[in-house]
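Per-record layout

source: Nostoc calcicola Ind31
name: Ribulose-1,5-bisphosphate carboxylase/oxygenase large subunit
length: 163
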Amino acid sequence: ELKQPIIMHDYLTAGFTANTTLSRWCRDNGILLHIHRAMHAVIDRQKNHGIHFRVLAKALRLSGGDHIHTGTVVGKLEGERGITMGFVDLLRENYIEQDKSRGIYFTQDWASLPGVMAVASGGIHVWHMPALVEIFGDDSVLQFGGGTLGHPWGNAPGATANR
């Protein structure tokens, strides 16, 4: 009835109960649920009293969603590579070994719980492609917004360059 393949939802502002309800509805209706994380920096960038994004990522995996913005390691949402890849792996892998250097403090076995696809977005453009593919691999989502529309020759060349 909606005639759309995907819904974008902010799980932090709406809350986990709303997200879980929407996630179940989307699965029942064959619609992808793209998760945004607006406001996350207010929660997870404060080292003294914040909640690390690793915890928010685990909560999302329990609550449900198909993909989420995770940062990029390059671009405007860059973060420490090991830590970023630690929570990316927590989102998409079924089993992950303890590795404190990546922020994985204990072995995590998700059993049959579906994974969440990491979306690299935020200030990325065609010149970041080699690094993004090397970091995230070819089983990832790379979202080019301003990096496409802000191409010096226009939108169409930006889309062509990113393709």
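summary: The chain is about 40% helix and 15% strand. The chain has a mean pLDDT of 87.
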